[in-house]
């Protein structure tokens, strides 16, 4: 392992053989500790969230505007398509993320849209990336430095042809660079999610966070991300990563790239399609030997793990033993029990060096007492 560049919150970026660049604890990390808070260098909307044609979020910070009204600040050139939550956001956007060139390009794109919504979202990314190269060349270089190798593909060719026809500025963006940027986006973008509702959570927008991109995946993560896009303040699009449990100095800090209760087959399929690798973590090594009917019960198994949980009680290094059920304890303690949620629980940040006994779900926001800290008694709390 060789140390690379630095990172805040008790982490450093290091090279790990077989895993590439990774986030490693530079000191002992406590449960709930914020190990990274980072602002995005690039944000762009998910086309699916605009299908209805009625925007309900700010075109700069993506905070919800509910409901828009006559006094809602709007773009002077495309007032029906770009709304802002405040005059400050509009002023900032017109100088950066929604410059006159971006506004004109997006307007033309609406007149000649890509054939499907996925390509529309990718077009939104390419427009934002090209604009980034103009307004912040240093951040554009950070984007280019991220993981993601280009390969010729029909989608990149289609988007390059479409955008070059819409705007002459894209003549300087070669087909190879277009494909390269799309590869960076695919492997490094984080979704800014809509609040949990009755159905599947949808992605409101996507963001590129250079340091957060160094987090590797594990199917039993020791950290999880939170976002508070509808929160107050000027950093509502920050990504916040908190430790789920203790992380020893020198140990890698990992996220799960999707809900931890996904089945083995679904996890492997997503990782191969989106990130190009097969997961060989301790949990996957065990589940790869399960029969199909056992693996199919994966999402609901937290209901039947009391015995395994007792055997695992007190283990901080969850998932390191090749047992028949290495993730039993993790599911009981750190998986949100709200029906249909699938979120991960992490303690609230420590206060004055004292660990919190309140767990927060990173999907639905539910707060509950840590049952281990209260002799197994769970008390749900109202969300602040």
Automatic annotation (TrEMBL):
Domain SET as annotated: residue spans: 9-258
SUPFAM superfamilies reported in the protein's UniProt record: SET domain (SSF82199)
Biased composition (Acidic residues): 293-321
Region (Disordered): 292-321
Any Pfam family the entry gives: SET
Protein name per its UniProtKB record: SET domain-containing protein
Originating organism: Aristolochia fimbriata (White veined hardy Dutchman's pipe vine)
Lineage: Eukaryota, Viridiplantae, Streptophyta, Embryophyta, Tracheophyta
């Amino acid at each position: 392992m060789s140390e690379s560049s630095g990172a805040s919150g008790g982490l450093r970026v290091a090279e790990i053989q077989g895993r590439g660049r990774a986030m490693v604890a530079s000191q002992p990390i406590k449960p709930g500790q914020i190990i990274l808070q980072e602002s995005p260098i690039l944000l762009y909307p998910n086309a699916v969230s605009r299908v209805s044609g009625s925007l309900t979020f700010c075109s700069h910070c993506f905070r919800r505007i509910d409901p828009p009204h006559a006094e809602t600040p709007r773009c002077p050139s495309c007032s029906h398509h770009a709304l802002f939550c405040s005059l400050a956001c509009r002023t900032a956007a017109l100088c950066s993320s929604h410059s006159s060139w971006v506004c004109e390009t997006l307007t033309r794109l609406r007149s000649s849209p890509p054939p499907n919504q996925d390509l529309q979202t990718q077009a939104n990314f390419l427009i934002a990336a090209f604009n980034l190269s103009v307004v912040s060349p240093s951040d554009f270089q950070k984007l280019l430095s991220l993981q993601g190798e280009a390969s010729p593909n029909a989608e990149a060719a289609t988007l390059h042809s479409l955008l070059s026809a819409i705007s002459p500025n894209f003549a300087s963006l070669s087909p190879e660079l277009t494909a390269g940027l799309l590869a960076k986006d695919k492997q490094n973008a984080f979704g800014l999610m809509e609040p949990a509702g009755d159905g599947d959570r949808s992605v409101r927008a996507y963001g590129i966070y250079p340091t957060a991109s160094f987090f590797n995946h594990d199917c039993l993560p020791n950290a999880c991300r939170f976002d508070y896009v509808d929160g107050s303040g000027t950093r509502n699009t920050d990504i916040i990563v908190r430790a789920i449990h203790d992380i020893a100095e020198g140990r890698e800090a990992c996220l799960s790239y999707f809900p931890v209760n996904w089945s083995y087959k679904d996890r492997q399929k997503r990782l191969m399609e989106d990130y190009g690798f097969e997961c060989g973590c301790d949990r996957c090594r065990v589940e790869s030997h399960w029969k199909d009917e056992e693996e199919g019960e994966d999402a609901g198994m937290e209901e039947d793990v009391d015995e395994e949980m007792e055997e695992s009680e007190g283990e901080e290094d969850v998932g390191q033993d090749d047992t028949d059920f290495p993730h039993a304890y993790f599911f009981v303690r750190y998986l949100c029990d709200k029906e249909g949620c699938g979120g991960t629980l992490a303690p609230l940040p420590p206060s004055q060096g004292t660990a919190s006994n309140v767990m927060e779900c990173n999907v639905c926001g539910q707060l509950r007492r840590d049952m281990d800290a209260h002799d197994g008694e769970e008390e749900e709390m109202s969300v602040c």
